[in-house]
Amino acid sequence: MALHLTTLSLSHFRSHRRAVLDFDGRPVAFAGANGAGKTNLLEAISLLSPGRGLRRAAPEDLIRRPEAIGWRLAATIIRQDTLHEVETGADPDAPRFLRIDGKAAPQAALGRIAPMLWLTPAMDRLWTEAPDGRRRFLDRMAMAFFPDHAEAALAYEKAMRQRNRLLRDQARDGAWYGALEAQMAQSGAQISANRRATLARLAAAAGQGGDFPVADLTLDDPSPGDEAALAAALAEGRRADMAAGRSLTGPHRADLAALWAEKAMPAAQCSTGEQKALLISTVLTHARALAVTTGAPPILLLDEVSAHLDATRRAALYDALCDLGAQAFLTGTEPDLFAPLGARAQHFALSDTGGLSLLQPSEPS
User: Fold this and answer.
1) What is the pLDDT of residue 210?
2) Which phi and psi angles does 209 have, rounded to 5°?
3) CB of 316 closer than 8 Å to CB of 212
4) What mean pLDDT is reported for the chain?
5) Does residue 209 have a pLDDT over 60?
6) pLDDT for the residue 323
7) Comparing C-alpha atoms, which of 13, 44, 41, 16 is closest to residue 352?
8) How far apart are the first and last CA of the chain?
9) Rounded Cα–Cα distance for residues 42 and 250 (Å)
10) CA atoms of 26 and 326, how far apart (whole Å)
11) Nearest CA among 334, 362, 336 for reference residue 348
């Protein structure tokens, strides 16, 4: 397998005082009652990619209570026959640290090691809620194709925050604005280009029919596409931006739209079940596109995804994951939800004992 997580150890991470797991590249099913710590495991894995993980939690919120002695994660990841060791964690009142292969590293470096995408129950209304969630979803797909996308996004956000501060302070120094707008234009143009290229690759890999509807994805990006035009638009918009107290032009205003291709129906107008199916379809398409481009699908974190599917689509999802060769981590409240996976997956049972998660391997149902 070209990409998979081989080991994961947790120390004082949320409900897990200590856990050590070994993986062989097959899909992994975690079964247990609500509150047993299943999502905490997925969150830990998500911290092996750039950003704050699938819950976007601050480092101090990940510390196990009542001990409050800090948390640690350690993992080994194989990508293209190269093994990487990743360590991350945080002590109370201290920033999160990251080491890759024994050396301190920025979080953006994780995007070059373990492309990752996730679905959580909170994302079920992705197509109908605010656009910032859809932008994050698209940007995580883009990072899998373009590892430097994370660095561009961080650079853009930093420059925009500084420009917004100047706007709120009613600053008039054109040189300060010009320098920040040049940074925003350079990284912003790269962000927009990476997003468009990502959607083009997804379109080329889109499935035809089957148990999950084909999603036609488009980018609504009102900002100018090239660096010079974006810099000019930012400069021209200073007066309006100052009145608003924030930057009104740029890729941070873009939105991702989805259409159920066969019915020509916008995702926002589909039923809740149809929206979920479109979301899963997008994830599967992304995995196929990445496998074609890089030789390996991303690691997938699918929290409680099986509970929202009927038996036919649940089996179809498992077959698709196995056919792709993707290492997918799935959670569910009942082991029977994963029965169709059988020996094609590793199975673990979780239980809660007074706020402490206990984890052990289990046999397929």
Assistant:
1) 61
2) 70, -145
3) yes
4) 93
5) no
6) 92
7) 16
8) 26
9) 32
10) 8
11) 362
**Angle value at C-alpha 202, between 122 and 147, nearest 5 degrees:** 80
User: Order of strands, edge to edge, in the sheet holding 82-90?
Assistant: 16-22, 3-13, 71-79, 82-90, 97-100, 103-104
Size of the chain in residues? 365
The string of pLDDT tens digits covering residues 301-335 is 999 998 778 899 899 999 999 999 999 999 999 99
Strand partners, 359: 350
Task: Name which residue leads in pLDDT, 227 or 213.
Answer: 227
Q: Are strands 328-332 and 28-32 parallel, antiparallel or unpaired?
A: parallel
User: Where does residue 321 fall: left (phi above 0), alpha (psi -120 to 50 degrees), or beta otherwise?
Assistant: alpha
Q: What is the C-alpha to C-alpha distance for residues 357 and 334, in angstroms, rounded to an integer?
A: 16
Identify the CA nearest to 127 among candidates 286, 7, 267: 267
- What is the reported pLDDT for 208? 53
Asked if pLDDT for residue 273 goes beyond 90, the answer is no
Q: What is the mean pLDDT of residues 166-178?
A: 94
Task: Compute how many other C-beta atoms are within 10 angstroms of the C-beta atom of residue 93.
Answer: 8
Q: Cβ(332)–Cβ(29) under 8 Å? A: yes
Compute the distance between CA of residue 207 and CA of residue 189 in angstroms, rounded to an integer.
30
Q: What is the 8-class DSSP label of residue 36?
A: S
Pairing state of beta strands 346-353 and 328-332? unpaired
CA atoms within 13 A on the CB side of 66: 1
Rounded CA-CA distance 206/281 in Å is 9
pLDDT at 294 over 90: no
Predicted local confidence at residue 80, as pLDDT: 85
Residue 200 has pLDDT above 90, yes or no: yes
Confidence at residue 286, expressed as pLDDT on a 0 to 100 scale? 95
The runs of H, that is alpha helices, within 206-310 are: 227-236, 238-244, 272-294
CA–CA gap between residue 232 and residue 216 (Å, rounded): 32
- The alpha-carbon radius of gyration of the chain (Å, integer) is 21
Q: Give the span between the Cα atoms of 181 and 137, in whole angstroms.
A: 25
